[in-house]
From TrEMBL:
Gene Ontology terms: cellular component: cytosol
Gene3D superfamilies: NadA-like (3.40.50.10800)
Species whose genome carries this gene: Rubrimonas cliftonensis
The protein, known as: Quinolinate synthase
PANTHER family: QUINOLINATE SYNTHASE, CHLOROPLASTIC, QUINOLINATE SYNTHETASE A
Record's keyword terms, sorted: 4Fe-4S, Iron, Iron-sulfur, Metal-binding, Pyridine nucleotide biosynthesis, Transferase
Length: 355
């Protein structure tokens, strides 16, 4: 039975209701008061009454199963602050997956992140609450395409973004994330470096490094939609507005920004600079996840949602732990070569940013 399949939803909900007390309740809200304190600015109390019973049940079940929950910065605040044991960008979550001693990892993020955890910890059970949580970048390229790029640029090293399948990682020389892409490219031998699959990230990195960078034309469906005109309009409306953008945005968008960095680097920039008003040019939930701790900052929300990230809900996190599904499986022959590419990146020593 799958909670994510429409035909099974009713039965799955009945099974959860039979096993846990999931009715909205003031008692559950009291028991989760510490979590609520972190999101009070963005989640109204009546909504928290609905979330609290799920959070209480997930916390108890997590202990029972020896599970750790890794929450990406794009998770909704009730998941990010309510149930995640570790929060961060792709790099930090990958490092945590390799480091944790917990036998079970629940990945609150998208499929490539769960695969990365499995690759780094093949002996662990890695669960993803909805295996359909994909990524427009990961689905834009195959291992065969990597071979095509190698044939086009003989001898050039292939740096693949972690937003790729295990098969593509295995075909690459090294991985990178948005937190360390320039550092990884600069560390490669040779004059030319192939970057896949994000064409915009590659263009942005090409402007920071001494190498010739060639790339695959994939794009993030969330970040490619931002435009420089949109950002200029925010600044014209209030010239004191700080603008910070994720490097998956087109270069013309990055040119309008005061800072560009990984999701964690963006959060830390706001913590450090404490702007009066800021536009975080990235997925919607990021602003919500930091708004509570920075009451003096006004967040303008140019809201582009990642439909893949939003497949993860408290309900399917609970279902995942209840049934120990959906388990992420990486074909045996891909694990070692994919781990080599991810580990090569981690060994370069870029500093991860956790929250
Ligand atoms: P980060 O590595 O910056 O967390 O980004 C992951 C991602 O999917 C951004 O769209
Ligand atoms: Fe992929 Fe973009 Fe969604 Fe990140 S925000 S998971 S890059 S589609």
């Amino acid at each position: 039975m799958r909670i994510n399949a429409a035909q099974d939803l009713k039965a799955a909900r009945a099974a959860l209701a039979g096993a846990y007390d999931l009715a909205p309740s003031a008692a559950a809200a009291r028991e989760t008061a510490a979590e609520y304190a972190r999101v009070a600015r963005v989640i109204p109390e009546p909504d928290w009454m609905l979330h609290a019973p799920y959070i209480r049940a997930i916390k108890a079940l997590k202990k029972e199963r020896g599970a750790v929950i890794l929450g990406h910065n794009y998770m909704t605040p009730e998941i990010f602050h309510g149930v995640s044991d570790f929060r961060g960008d792709s790099l930090a979550l990958a490092i945590e997956a390799a480091r944790t001693e917990a036998p079970v990892i629940v990945q609150c993020g998208v499929h490539f992140m769960a695969e990365t955890s499995k690759i780094l910890s093949p002996e662990k059970t890695v669960l993803i609450p909805d295996s359909r949580a994909g990524c427009s970048l990961a689905s834009s390229i195959t291992a065969k395409d990597i071979e095509g790029m190698r044939a086009q640029y003989p001898g050039a090293k292939v740096v693949s973004y972690v937003n790729t399948t295990a098969e593509v990682k295995a075909a690459s020389d090294i991985c990178c994330t948005s937190a360390n892409a320039a550092q990884v490219v600069e560390a490669m031998p040779g004059d030319t470096v192939i970057m896949t699959p994000d064409g915009y990230l590659a263009r942005n990195v090409a402007r920071q490094v001494s190498k010739r960078v060639v790339w695959w034309e994939g794009a993030c469906m969330v970040h490619e939609r931002f435009t420089p005109e949109e950002l200029r309009a925010y600044r014209e409306a209030d010239p004191d507005t700080a603008i910070i953008a994720h490097p998956e945005c087109p270069p013309a968008v990055i040119d309008e920004a005061d800072f560009s960095g990984s999701t964690a680097d963006m959060i830390n920039w706001v913590r450090r600079e404490k702007p009066r008003k800021v536009v975080m040019v990235t997925e919607c939930s990021m602003s919500d996840n930091v708004a509570s701790e920075l009451p003096e900052t006004e967040f303008v929300r140019p809201c582009n949602i990642c439909p893949h990230m939003k497949r993860i809900t408290l309900e399917n996190v609970l279902w995942s732990l209840h049934t120990m599904t959906e388990e992420v499986v990486v074909p045996e022959h891909l694990i070692a070569p994919a781990a080599r590419a991810v580990q090569a990146m981690i060994d370069l020593g870029a500093k991860p940013t956790r929250h």
